[in-house]
Write a structure and sequence with these properties.
The chain is an all-alpha fold and 58 residues long. The protein has a single domain, classed as 434 Repressor (Amino-terminal Domain) (Orthogonal Bundle), CATH 1.10.260. Helix content is 60%, strand content 0%. The chain has four helices and no strands. Helix 1 crosses helix 3. Pfam families: LacI.
Length: 58
């Protein structure tokens, strides 16, 4: 069984920090350039990343 993709995996593929991945996924608190946002969304799609709902609720 392969492991689930993480925020780190998305950041590495998109060439950003994990904070930027979080900003894109959560809609803030900081604005992200559209070009960067698209790279992150593309990486999320390629990897099949899904945020952990339990972790988000903490």
């Amino acid at each position: 069984m392969s492991r689930k993709p993480t925020r780190d995996d998305v950041a590495r593929l998109a060439g950003t920090s994990t904070a930027v991945v979080s900003y894109v996924v959560n809609g803030g608190p900081r604005r992200v350039r559209e070009e960067t946002r698209q790279r992150v969304l593309r990486a999320i799609g390629e990897l099949g990343y899904r945020p952990n709902a339990l972790a988000k609720s903490l």
